Amino acid sequence: MIKIYNTLTRKKEEFKPIEPGKVSMYVCGPTVYNLIHIGNARPMIIFDAFRRFLESKGYEVNYVSNFTDVDDKIIKKSIEEGVESSVISKRYIEECKKDMEGLNVRPATTHPLATEEIDGMIDMIQTLIDKGYAYAVEDGTVYFEIEKFAQYGKLSHKNMDDLQAGHRDIKVTGDLKKNDFDFVLWKPKKEGEPFWESPWCDGRPGWHIECSVMAKKYLGETIDIHAGGEDLIFPHHENEIAQSEAAYGVPFSNYWMHNGFLNIDNKKMSKSLGNFFTVRDIAEKYDLQVLRFFMLSAHYRSPLNFSDELMEAAKNGLDRIVTAAERLRELVEKSGLNPDAEPVEVTSVPDDYKALLAEAKAFEDKFDAAMEDDANTADAVSAIFELVKFVNVNTDESDNGAYLKAVYDELKKLCDILGIKLKKEEVILDSEIEALIEERQQARKSKNFARADEIRDELLAKGIVLKDTREGVKWEKA
Predict the structure, then answer these.
(1) Which is nearest to 207 in space by CA: 223, 228, 186?
(2) Is 422 helix (H, G, I), strand (E, B) or coil?
(3) Predicted pLDDT at 431
(4) Other residues' Cβ atoms within 10 Å of the Cβ of residue 65
(5) Is 412 helix (H, G, I), strand (E, B) or coil?
(6) Residue 163's pLDDT is what?
(7) What are the CA-CA distances from residue 271 to residues 95, 277, 338, 459 (Å)?
(8) How far is CA 410 from CA 96, 129, 209, 364, 417, in A?
(9) What is the pLDDT of the chain when averaged over all its residues?
């Protein structure tokens, strides 16, 4: 029985999907104005692992994660660079996808873009106006009127009277809103900004309406699970509930999952403190599998502290697992079997190994119990470590091949669910690539074309493609 801690009710509940055997899951994606940071990576990794677990239990998961590709930060960057905002968003969507691949985060079933769903947003806003939950003011801005939605605050458990009292001092003079906490559904364009035509004004949607529309289009009016970082509980997810339930009169999501904050050396990550790290920054020092493993080694609802010491511990822990797996692969190969072949049937394992195999498979029960208990990846990782210890003690080259393969299958199965790769991959850092490119340039200048070609081939073997352009040598991963 799978249990989920539901932010809405503040308790663990048995997970019962709307449709048996199927799960609809929406996870808020990044705003694409820059490279993603390690705080963005946490929900990507955690909810990817939970999705994998659900699928391992036979569920068909419709997993939707959006890209917010119209936003003040995107527009600011586009103005700074003198390009269309779509150039910025497309660039960083592609960069985000590269980082997700490096983190072994599987693509969502659908990655909708906010700018491609504007018509749906306009329709939903009109529905809210027609039902009396929203209003337009003279400049064309449309607001959601929170006092009309009696359950406002039910997700964040905030008392709106208290919020109002604390907010009155900062009310903007001349503001056209009826209530300080009424939030924007549509806003008028500013000079140089992208805009769309609407019944109220030429403008663009507010942030909150985007997710409501995309969730409904790709998953339905009521979804099973909505997930994201705890910083989104208020106001983003609270506002999503208000506008979705006001528009359609049914619950928006039955379960809400939120991961805890990520701190850097026990401090909040921020550019001003100089402790802001992108995923690319980490990739300069570690294989991104280490970052994934680090994220999985704590319970997703707990605050997570990032530090060099903890990353080194994660690297050592991952090395223990991968080293045991590689040794086991070699034993399987020596026995004449292919470790990458289909899992062996238990019936093919000799009787005198059945008790040992049952002991190995018992770790899967521990793993499942952890993941069924509110996606406790920390305890699931502990179960894998116990299996690794079993492997190191109870396997050697004198053992039966089918037994060795069955144990390897077990280890691979559990690691696959968490997205942990068992084969070591050669990591080549950007700085190493640049150094080799510089050496190649010098070789060409010296007319040592043999060495230049050798370096090109060397990089190609590592999955790096060089392109000679007018601006100089560019490289990309194959």
Answers:
(1) 186
(2) coil
(3) 74
(4) 26
(5) helix
(6) 65
(7) 20, 9, 49, 34
(8) 32, 55, 44, 8, 11
(9) 92
